[in-house]
Amino acid sequence: MNPAKIVILSYFQVILSESIMEIQQIKQRFSIIGTFPGLDRAIDIAMQVAPTDLSVLISGESGTGKEVFPQIIHSLGVRKHGPYIAVNCGAIPEGTIDSELFGHEKGAFTGAHDTRKGYFEVSNGGTIFLDEIAELPLSTQVRLLRVLETGEYIRVGSSKVLKTDVRVVAATNLDVVQAIKGGKFREDLFYRLNTVPIQMPSLRERGNDILLLFRKFAADFSERYRMPAIRLDEEARQVLLNYEWPGNIRQLKNITEQLSVIEQDREVSAAALMHYLPDYHKTRLPALIDKDSVTEEAFNSEREILYKVLFDMKSDMNDLKKLVAQIMEKGSVSTDIEQENEGLIKKLYSTVDDLPVNAENLISKRTTVRKEREEEHILDTEEIVEESLSLEDKEIELIIKALDKHNGKRKYAAQDLGISERTLYRKIKEYNIE
Fold first, then answer.
1. Across the chain, what does the average pLDDT equal?
2. Which residue did the predictor score with more confidence, 334 or 34?
3. Which H, E and C letters describe 102-157, residue by residue?
4. Sheet with 167-172: strands ordered across
5. Which of 2, 118, 150, 177 could form a disulfide with 103 if both were Cys (CB 3.0 to 4.6 A apart)?
6. Is residue 284 one of the residues assigned to a domain?
7. Residues 45 and 178 placed together within one structural domain of the fold
8. Same domain for 233 and 192?
9. What CATH number corresponds to the domain at position 212?
């Protein structure tokens, strides 16, 4: 190999090794457990952006540990000797959020007996962490955007412009893009905050990290409560790995604490573990997700499926009409016709039985299968109705059938229909279905 290439490869190997060592040091310092590549990537981004003053937006589900990353960024940055303040925007009432963030003057509102400094003034020269940033009212978002762009703000009840030099790190567990489409979050603020995005992986994505975290929590609670640490048998470990963990690390920690305190047997079985996981499913099969809003794409997909079903049924009915015309022309059902169209007859008679009786346009005669060793032909009559091609009628009919099948349980009816539960609620209300 070319000596120059060897030198370059050796250089990159050294850099990679140093980066891995730095990530491990950060994990030890902030008690971060796990080896999942997505987690290491998030830590690496936090380390790289820390020396700058760029705004950072941390996204991820609730309970994934987003609150640790602002601390990493602050401790590795040039502002590490300045103040660090964490603010939960969702926990502050809308009427007082401006006062909390930007301060207020004496007499600005009822109860404002003294002048008060806001978080942006107190954290001047340091870092402010705005958790649940998507919960901010739109009026406060405008004020925050001005702080991010110019460093200027005005206290509530004042007209004097103040300056602050603060780094903003924000976090949210919501889909901000959807919030922008719904008019609940300003697009310009999103792009200003999202200068450097960090995506936190959910616990269910992290595989064996789940077992590592469980052992860490079990050891911590063992030391706290002065009792032997709990452990899982092989089957219980599989249950732990297969669970969806909607509450992520926070939920895992709570369940581990419950097991440590309540279970007498220090080796927990799968049966015992599932008592603490009431919504456990053995497999991670694809499932419909209940969205906060139904997208236009989802509606179009459902409509196309219904159209396809209706057109297929119309084609079958046209074939049946031709068959009935042959029967009426000949006056009886020949064996050849019966054998040739046996499948069609069975299929369409079952379809007609399920349709609402709303027409009497077509009447035909059919003959039952001849009984063995009998010479008598039994001629039955049955009314065949032409199907309704109204999309609304078919939707109502399918929804009623699904609800009857599942005894009125809308969740399972929606799964059977292949639509979201929210869509089912909307259609039930729209069609006044009891």
1. 81
2. 34
3. HCECCCCCCCCCCCECCHHHHCCCCEEEEECHHHCCHHHHHHHHHHHHHCEEECEC
4. 84-88, 127-131, 167-172, 56-59, 196-199
5. 118
6. no
7. yes
8. no
9. 1.10.8.60
Check residue 359 and give its pLDDT: 37
* pLDDT single digits (tens) 1-19: 556 555 455 544 555 567 7
Q: Which tokens go with 101?
A: 């963030």
C-beta separation of 145 from 185 below 8 A: no
Whether the full predicted model's pTM is greater than 0.85, yes or no, is no
Please indicate, yes or no, whether residues 324 and 397 belong to a single structural domain of this protein.
yes
Domain identity same for 35 and 50? yes
Q: What CATH number has the domain bearing residue 167?
A: 3.40.50.300
pLDDT classification of 420: cutoffs 50, 70, 90 = confident
SS (H, E, C) 249-304: HHHHHHHHHHHHHHCCCCEECHHHHHCCCCCCCCCCCCCCCCCCCCCHHHHHHHHH
* Domain boundary residue, one of 241, 274, 307: 274
Q: Is the pLDDT of residue 324 over 90?
A: no
